[in-house]
Design goal:
The complex is a heterodimer.
Chain A: E1 2-6, E2 9-11, E3 33-35, H1 37-53, E4 57-64, H2 68-78, E5 82-87, H3 95-106, E6 113-117, H4 128-136, E7 140-150, E8 153-160, E9 163-170, E10 173-177, H5 189-195, E11 200-204, E12 212-218, E13 227-231, H6 236-246
Parallel strand pairs in A: 1-4, 1-6, 4-5, 5-11, 6-10, 7-10
Antiparallel strand pairs in A: 2-3, 7-8, 8-9
Chain B: E1 3-7, E2 10-11, E3 14-15, H1 18-33, E4 37-43, E5 59-64, H2 73-86, E6 89-95, H3 98-111, E7 115-119, E8 121-124, E9 128-134, E10 139-145, E11 150-154, E12 169-173, E13 182-188, E14 202-206, H4 216-226, E15 229-233, H5 235-239, E16 260-264, H6 270-276, E17 281-286, H7 293-296, E18 299-302, H8 305-321
Parallel strand pairs in B: 1-4, 1-6, 4-5, 5-12, 6-11, 7-11, 14-15, 14-16, 16-17, 17-18
Antiparallel strand pairs in B: 2-3, 8-9, 9-10
Helix pairs in contact in B: 2-3, 4-8
Classes of the chains: A alpha/beta, B alpha/beta.
Bound molecules: flavin-adenine dinucleotide and adenosine monophosphate.
Chain lengths: 250, 322
């Protein structure tokens, strides 16, 4: 199986966000960047599929700045065979723009499966993988928590409100990975050493992000100061009173 | 002038509540720009769409088919694109539910137009202007969309449905002919169906303070007493296998905006707060008065949850009973 995994460099989820001087982006100083947690799940799935099929190749592809090379190295350390950086300084606001750049690289390259994370924890569009499938004319299932493949066909489960959808699809296909699909491995020391020698191709790309622009980036409104209504079970009546008369939610 | 196409959602042949939210949002944009609202309904025959006009739809376009009973990605995308191209729409709106999060990117990809996903605010000011959370709500981006059409998905529970009666006359459109390569074959539903955390008006969230999986029964009872409530969980308890991932609230779980979120034995880690800080009212119950959850809570009780929660459940039962 030849499998592509699209991965993104994102701020660590621990990051306290500060707004940058332009008022439209974050202040990146001191921010630690990591491989998007959902993309780890996609890589893990790709590695397991390759291991199961006994042969094949896992290619990690990122669109981003030069620094995304580090992110690709993390994927290589987990076990991906090679990496491709589509290098640009543009960070698109429209997920369709990202998808187009990735689709141009993926098109015609003969992948049996193209995997994505369900969502990037920075823009949180939950879109890029599904848009890529449309651009390439491939079937896709998003946010999968379970997967079985055999003989050019697959069955995936995706969680919906109050249930689980079971979707059957044909390969080649695009899938986006939800938590619960697997437990991503940590790169072992040996993997980290080997990753340094694995091929990482850097391709400069032109990206133009049109039709949607950032007017302003702001911190969310602070929640109004709350109060402790009391201690222990005896505070319950006061809480109920507050929820009924002040907050009016009971 | 901006005409808006509102894509509604049905389950089991009945329109979901989020449909009214989407029509309301669409009406607000259309009114500000002097346009109209068309609602699109996809599903099996016999869906009752008579109430859609009340929320502001001028027309309701119904695409029926036995194989549209479940969400079928290709057929739904094709029909939505066909309707969008048949009219002069500035925006295609839908709810950012499991379906909307899959359908919106398909439509945007096929139309090659901008997509703004999971927006929390939407207005018209010489163009569509939206606000959407970035960094899981740790920042809010305000975006201007210059292209028409565009696709926008709206976070469930953030728009208050408003009744503004319009004609809402129903007409039928034929389903699109598609080659099916991905087919939804069934929906597996749990035996005891509880509301989903993203849809419930009240969420009772439990954390490691509950000590063990069995103790979540306390929260189930509280949720039952509250009526339309869901049980949510912190990642710590999901990772421990006490609760399913479907219930996880936070940056790598679900984002919820209920009327009331009750955090029980949850410390309030930054990743958890990212998923629930837009709740309208937050209550925290924690034995540690310095727990960060109290910083976002409107009301807090410092105390042992094993004493506080049963009392709360009892008082709510008394209230409901009497
Ligand atoms: C990449 C990444 C993503 C993450 N995503 C998420 C996410 O989506 N959602 C999420 O929730 N977390 C997430 N986390 C984990 C997060 O950092 C915290 O570890 C987690 O939220 C802690 O869960 P908790 O509050 O249940 O447990 P703890 O932090 O252990 O808190 C337990 C609380 O219970 C209280 N308590 C104990 N006993 C009692 C009692 N008898 N009565 C009352 N109170 C009591 C304690 O005072 C304490 O405040 C993520 C972490 C990472 C690194
Ligand atoms: N710049 C990028 N480069 C490579 N893959 C990306 C990029 N942005 C998003 N993706 C992929 O698309 C998924 C969904 O991202 P998003 O639509 O931004 O939530 C991510 O989990 C990645 O797998």
């Amino acid at each position: 199986m030849k499998i592509a995994v699209c991965i993104k460099r994102v701020p660590d989820t621990e990051t306290r966000i500060r707004i940058g001087a332009d008022g439209k982006s974050i202040d990146q100083s001191g921010v630690k960047f990591v491989l998007n947690p959902y993309d780890e799940i996609a890589i893990e799935e790709a590695l397991q599929l390759k291991e199961k099929s006994g042969d094949g190749e896992v290619v990690a592809i990122a669109l981003g700045t030069e620094e995304s090379q580090e992110t690709i190295r993390t994927a290589l350390a987990m076990g991906a065979d090679r990496g491709i950086l589509l290098q640009t300084d543009v960070a698109p606001v429209n997920p369709v723009t990202v998808a187009k750049a990735l689709a141009a690289e993926l098109d015609g390259a003969g992948y049996d499966l193209i995997l994505f994370g369900k969502v990037s924890v920075d823009d949180g569009s939950q879109a890029v993988g599904t848009v890529v499938s449309e651009l390439l004319g491939l079937p896709s299932v998003s946010a999968i928590g379970g997967l079985e493949t055999a003989d050019g066909k697959g069955t995936a489960e995706r969680e919906i409100e109050g249930g689980v959808e079971v979707v059957e699809f044909s390969l080649p296909a695009v899938l986006t990975a939800e938590k619960g699909l697997n437990e991503p491995r940590y790169p072992a020391l040996r993997g980290i050493m080997m990753a340094k020698k694995k091929p990482l191709e850097v391709k400069p790309v032109e990206v133009s992000d049109e039709g949607i622009t950032v007017v302003e980036l702001a911190l969310p409104a602070e929640r109004p100061e709350g109060r402790i209504v009391g201690e222990g079970p005896d505070a319950v009546p006061a809480l109920i009173e507050a929820l009924r008369t002040e907050a009016k939610v009971l | 002038m901006a005409n808006v196409l509102a894509v509604l959602e049905q389950r089991g042949g009945a329109l979901k509540q989020v449909s009214h939210e989407v029509v309301t949002a669409a009406r607000t944009v259309a009114d500000a720009s002097g346009g109209g609202v068309d609602a699109l309904v996809l599903g099996p025959s016999g869906i009752d769409v008579s109430g859609v006009g009340a929320y502001g739809a001028d027309r309701v376009i119904v695409v029926e088919g036995d194989d549209l009973r479940l969400y079928q990605p290709e057929a739904y995308a094709a029909a939505t694109v066909a309707q969008t191209q048949s009219g002069d729409y500035a925006a295609v709106l839908m709810s950012a539910t499991a379906m909307g999060k899959d359908l919106a990117p398909r439509v945007a990809g096929r139309l090659d137009c901008p997509l703004a996903a999971d927006v929390t605010e939407l207005e018209w000011s010489d163009g569509i202007v939206v606000s959407r959370p970035w960094y899981s709500g740790k920042a809010i981006a305000k975006l201007e969309i210059a292209a028409a059409p565009c696709v926008v998905s709206v976070r469930p529970n953030v728009v208050n449905p408003i009744e503004r009666a319009h004609d809402g006359a129903a007409e039928k459109a034929p389903p699109a002919d598609v080659e099916v390569r991905a087919r939804t074959v069934e929906i597996k539903e749990p035996e005891k169906a509880r509301l989903d955390v993203t849809e419930a008006p009240v969420v009772v969230g439990g954390g490691r303070g509950l000590k063990e999986a069995e103790n979540f029964a306390l929260l189930e009872e509280l949720a039952d007493a509250l009526g339309t409530a869901a049980v949510g969980a912190s990642r710590a308890v999901v990772d421990a296998g006490w609760r399913s991932h479907a219930e996880q609230v936070g940056q790598t779980g679900k984002t919820v905006s209920p009327q009331l979120y009750i955090a029980v034995g949850i410390s309030g880690a930054i990743q958890h707060l990212a998923g629930m800080r837009t709740s309208k009212v937050i209550v925290a119950i924690n034995k540690d008065g310095d727990a960060p959850i109290f910083k976002v809570a409107d009301y807090g009780i410092v105390g042992d949850l094993f004493e506080v929660v049963p009392r709360l459940t009892q008082e709510i039962k008394n209230l409901r009973g009497g």
